[in-house]
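Summary for the steering committee. The consortium agreed at its last meeting that each partner would contribute one worked example illustrating the joint modelling workflow. Our contribution is presented below. We chose a case with several input lines so that the handling of multiple components could be demonstrated. No manual editing was applied between input and output; the record is shown as generated.
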Amino acid sequence: MTVTPETVSSTAPALRKRRPPEPAAGTRRRSLRPTLTGWSFILPNFLGFALLTLVPMVFGLALSFMEWSPWGDPEWVGFENFERMFRSSTFWIALWNTTYYAAGHIPLTIVVSLGLALLLNRTLSGLGFFRTAFFLPYVTSLVAVAVVWNMLFNPTSGPVNQFLQFVGVTDPPGWTSSTAWAMPAVIVASVWRDMGYYMVLFLAGLQTIPTELYEAARVDGANAWQRFRNITLPGLRPTTFFVLIMCTVASFKVFDLIVVMTDGGPGRATKVLSQLIYEEGIREGRFGLASAISLVLFVLVAGFTVLQFVIQRHREDR
Amino acid sequence: MKRYPSALAAIAAASAVALAGCSSPASETVDPSAPVTLTVSAWNLDKTPEFNALFEAFEAAHPNVTIQPVEILADDYPEKVATMLAGGDTTDVLTMKNVIDYARYANRGQLLDLTDFVGGLEKDKIAGLEPFDIDGKYAAVPYRQDFWVLYYNKKLFDEAGLPYPDHLTWAQYSELAKKLTSGTTPDGQKVYGTYHHIWRSVVQATAAAQTGGDQLSGDYEFFSDQYALALDLQNAGAALDWGTAKTQKVNYRSMFETGQTAMLPMGTWYIAGIKAAIEGGTSSVEWGMAPMPQISSGGETATFGSPTAFAVNEKAKNVEVAKEFIRFATGEEGAKVLAGIGVVPAYGSDAVTAAFTALPADELSRTTFTENKKVVLEMPVSDVTSDIDTILNEEHELIMAGQKSIADGIRDAGDRVKNEVL
Amino acid sequence: MTANLTAPVARKPTTNAPSGPRRPPGRARVRAAVHSVLLAGLCLLVLVPFVWMISSSLKHDNQVFTVPTQWIPREFVWSNYADIWTQIPMLAYLRNSAFLAITISFLQVLTGSFAAYGFAKLRFPGRDWLFLAYLATIAVPWQAYMIPQYLIMEKLGLVNTHLSIILLQAFGAFGVFLMRQYYQSIPDELIEAARIDGLSEYRIWWRIMLPLSRPAIASLGLLTFVATWNDYMGPFIYFTSNELWTVQLGLRSFVGQYDAAYAMIMTGSVISVVPVVLVFLLGQRHFIQGIATSGLKG
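What follows is the complete predicted structure of the assembly.
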C-alpha cells in the first residue's frame, strides 16, 4: 500500500549516529506541561496511526499464535501455525525467492542508481531533462509497468528477444514463462523502476561532499578512481547506509510488481513471502498461518536492518 | 457426477406449477409492495450479459424492487468476495462463480441455509444442484450449468476442405489441428489449428472426466495422455504455445473471433459471448459446436462442466426479496431469459430449450447441445479442494511452459498433494 | 529534483549546486561530449518502455506485436485517445484518483509535519518509544495486517467509501518519519531563540518550521501523491462500487476484460501516467526553488 519503504524518503543524514542534545540535568523536570504539548502535536497523526496501523498490526502478531477467522472464535494454538509453515514446501520456496529477489535487486539498484548519480553530478546542459527522464519510471503506475514489461519480454515477438536475436543470441530466454528467467526479468523491471528514486538520494548525498576535497586530491595527483575511492565513497557513506536500509526493507516486502507481472509463476518460480501471506490470509482465510509468515518476514527485515546498523557503527568506531 | 440434461430433455409439464409456485411465496411476510433495493454481487457486467438480463427481467416482474449490482473484476472475484464476507459485508445475493468458492464460504457459515427453500423448488429440473449439497444442506441454487464443447470455425474447415469435427477422438482431433494450421488471417496473424486456453482444466478436468480419474486423489497418472497431446500440438506449432498465451494474457475470445484458430475447446458460456460479438459487429466468425473429442469413438460423450449459483449472504438485509430473486432466476422464467441471450440455464424444460435460439442452425451444434452426455463436475468439492487446486495449477504451469517433463510434473503434483494436503 | 536533495543541502549550505571537478579545456571538451553521449544513450534505454507505450497506444491492436518491432506506427491511430473515454469512464476514474491523491497528500503533510515537530523538537516521556513504534511499522508488510484493518473499517461503516482510503493512508508512518528527519537537520538554537522570544510551540511550528521545511513538504507531498495515485491493492479491497474506482482499478479492470485490446490498454496506461508526470514536473521546479531558498533564511 502507500507506506512502501521506498517512499519513506531521504534524509540520510538523520540516520547518522547523531545524538540529540541531552538536556541539562536541571531542566529535566517531570512537569506535565511539556508532555501535554508534546502529545498534542503527535496526537492528530497518532490517533489515525494507532487505530488503523498499530492496533491491526499487534492484533496480527497475536494471531500468529492463534487459529482464527472472523467467522469463529479465536483459539490459542501455540506454535502450531509455525509448525505448519515450516512443513510447507511453498514457504521455503517463497523464502528462497524473496532472498533471491533481494540479492539481485539491492546491489543492482544501488550500483545503477549510484552510477547515474555520478554521471549527473556535474554541470551539463539538459541536466533537468536527464534527471526527469531517469526519475520517470518511479512515478509510473504499476499496472502500466507490468503490462509494458510483459510485452517487452514477450518470448516470441517482444523487442527484448528480437534485440537478442539481432545481436546473435540464437536461443533467447523465455523470460516470464521460464522458471530460470522469470526472476531476473522481474528484477530488471524493478531495478528500472526504482533506480531513479535512489539516484535522487545519491545526488543529494554527493552534494554534501565539499568540492575542495576533490581540488586538493587533484593537486596531489590522484586519478579518477582514487578520488572516487577515497573521497566520494567515504563521503557518501551515510547516504549509502540509508539507501541500503530503505532498499532492503522494500526488497523483502516486494509484492505488487510480482503479482502484476508473473503472479508468482511459472509454478512457484517467483512466489515471494508477502504474496504467500496474501494468498494464505485472504484467499484461504488462514489468518493465523498468514500472520506467522509475516512474523518471519518481519524478523528477517528487522534482522537485516539491525545488522546493517551494527556494521555501520563498527565502521564509524574504527 | 451429474447426468445432463435429464432436466433439459424432460417435458415441461410442470411449468404451470412452477409459475404458481413462483407467485405464491409462502414465507413472504413483509409488505410485498414496499420499495426495496436488492444488492447482488456480479462480475464484468459489460461482458457478462446474463446479469443485466436477469436483473431487468426481475425488476420488470417486481416493480418495487431495484437491483443494485455490486460489480467485481472477474479475475479477482474470489479474493474480493472473501474479503467482503470477512468484514461482514451485507450484500444480499452472492453469485457463486464456482463450487470451490461455494464450499469455502458455506463451510465458514457465511451463507444462509437454503435447505428448506431448495426443498420447495423443482429439484429434478435443476441440473447441477448436486455439488451444492453439503451434508444434506444447501446454501446456493444453480442458475447456470455450463459444459465443455469444441467450437470450430466453419470457414477455416471449408477452406481446408476438411469435414467438421463430428464426435472426434483425440487422435483425430490432433491430426485435424495440424492440418488446419496454415496461412494467416487478413490481419497477418498466424492461423492455428486449435487453441488451448491456459487453464489447467483444459487438460486436467478433461482427463478426469474421460478417464474417471479423481483430481483429489494425489495419483495423477491419468493426466499423462492429455498432457502429451497438448504438448505435442504446441510443439508442432498447431496450437499457440502456453508461455505466450500466459504472458500476453491472450484472450480465447479474440483468438476465435478473429479467425486465429480453427478449433477451440471451451465452456458453453461462450455461446452468449460469440452471439454478442457477432451482433455487435466485432466478429463475423461462422461458427459451429461439436462435442468434446473423446479417448475412443462410439461411446457416450463425456465432458466436464460447472454450475454457477446464487446464494444468500448470512448477513443479508433483504432475505425474503433475495430468496424471491433466486426463485425467479433459477426457475423457468429466469431460464428463458438466460436461454434468450445464449446462456445455458440450469433449469431445463422444452420451453427453455425452445428459447435457446443462439445456437447455429446446423444439426451437429444441436446434437452437441441436446444429446445425452456425461457431465462431470470440473473439480470435486471438499475441504481440501482449494489447496489441491493451487498445487495442480502450479504444476500445470510448469509442464505447459516446458519447465518440467510430464512425468516429473505429475509425480511432483502427487507428492505435494500427498505430503502437504492429504 | 525532489526535496530529497534538500535535507543535506540545508545542513551544509556552504556546498553549492551540482558542479563536478573542474578540468582544463581541450581534452575536457572531448570528455564532456563522450559523457553527454553516454548519458543520452542511457536515457534512451531507460525511456524505451515509455516509447513503446506511447507508440503502441497509437497503433491498431493487431499492429502492437510485429516482427520486427515497429517503433514508429505505420499509421497513427489517434482515435484511441478519443475512444477510451467512452470505452470506460476514464474521466470519473481520473477525478476519483485526483481527489484521493490531493486529499491524502494534504492530510499526510499536515499531520505528519505536526507530529514530526513533536518528535524532533520536543522532549517528553515516551517519545522515543512512540517513534520506535512508528519506525517498526515500516518493516511490516501491509498484507500482514490488512484483514484486522479491514474489520475495523467495516465496524466504522467506512468500507466502500473514499473516506476509508483517506483515513488509511493519511496517517501513515512515513510522513512522520520523513518530516522528523528533516526537522532534525534544523538547528535547535533557532527554536530556542524563538522560545526565548515567547513564541508558543504551535506558533514556532507554524511560523518557523513550516516555512523552513518547504522542500521537505514538497517532497513528501509528491511522494504521497505518487503512491496514492498508483496504489492498487487499497482501492481494490475497499472500493466495491464502480463510481468510487480509481484509475488503477479502472485500468486493471480494462486489462481484465479486453485483454486483446493491446493498443487501448497502452492508451489507458499513457493517460494514467500523464497526471503524475505533470505533478512531478510542476513540483520539480518548486523543489529546485525550495533548495535555493532554504537554509536558514526562512
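Chain A has one domain: 88-317. Chain A touches chain B through 29 residues (CB under 8 Å).
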